Amino acid sequence: MMKTNKRWGSGARVDDLDTGKKMLLQAAVHCFTTKGIKATTIEDIANVANVTRRTVYRYFAGKPDIIATLMKIERTRMFRRLAEEVQQYQDDFPRLLEECIWFTATYHTPQQGNDLVTGGNQQEANPYMDTEESDNEWRKVLHKPLTQYNQRYGKNIDLDNLISTVGRLALAYRQIPTDKANFLAGVRAFRMA
């Protein structure tokens, strides 16, 4: 853990770099979910964190750096939970795929608050979501079950094409929410076509 003597707020010191970053990221989440990513300024984040803009720039290169950091943290958290959720479907790839799409479509939805990626934030967040890092996380979840499925049923489904489709479906269902029964009926009808 890196130590720092940087001032925080009204003269209090932050003992380590990670604590300072966490406090700023919490302020950024508050701003991004209440004002929107586009409308939020570094000044807004500094005000919520009770620091100066200069302090924010000591920890982050700018707003894009803050957004990228938040998206990376959330992506890691989401895929860790996703892997746990779909573990029971490792031998039923079609069901695993349905559960993956449903989980990612309903993960921290706007109705639950604290949404950084949909609604007014979608346009600003998209470049940070559709990344090689996201694709790598999907590969970790889907590679082994898809390989087994392809071998078992003589299929040749391409993992990269599947990842692209799964991500888009999850985002579409995220933008236009439905209940799980209707979601499953739609996905299963599509699968049967």
UniProtKB/TrEMBL annotation:
Q: Which residues bind DNA?
A: 41-60
Domain named HTH tetR-type: residues:
18-78
Keyword DNA-binding present in the record's keywords: the answer is yes
Q: Which UniProt keywords apply?
A: DNA-binding, Transcription, Transcription regulation
Q: Which domain of life is it from?
A: Bacteria
> What InterPro entries does the database record attribute to this sequence?
DNA-bd_HTH_TetR-type_CS, Homeodomain-like_sf, HTH-type_TetR-like_transc_reg, HTH_TetR
Q: What GO molecular function terms would the record report? A: DNA-binding transcription factor activity; transcription cis-regulatory region binding
Q: Which Gene3D superfamilies match?
A: Tetracycline Repressor, domain 2
PANTHER family linked to this entry: HTH-TYPE TRANSCRIPTIONAL REGULATOR BETI, HTH-TYPE TRANSCRIPTIONAL REGULATOR RUTR
Protein name per Swiss-Prot or TrEMBL: TetR/AcrR family transcriptional regulator
Upper taxonomic classification of the species? Bacteria, Pseudomonadati, Pseudomonadota, Gammaproteobacteria, Cellvibrionales
